Amino acid sequence: MELEYETKVEGDKGLVVVSGDLDNEQAGEALRVAFNKVFGQGLKTVVFDLRDVQIINSYGIGKILMCYNRLKTEGGTLMMKPLNGFVKETFELLMLDSLFPVDES
Description:
105 residues, alpha/beta, Transcription Regulator spoIIAA, 4 strands, 38% helix
């Protein structure tokens, strides 16, 4: 069974809703596919909703940074929904919380 993340367009933003753990190749590939789906629609702002992610490791962080770099080279912005738990702690520890604006909508 192939893992797939929900994507939506909300106004001028693309939203990727990540569920489950973001700690392996299958999850990373699903994130890349979902990101490309919204990015390919010409949206310059993409929001990752990681509220349902319990575990994230360097593999997941690497995929998020790959998406960030791709958007940045096109003049876009990668945002995060408010983080919680282990994911929030990981982002704070790596100082990624200062890299990604928070989408409160």
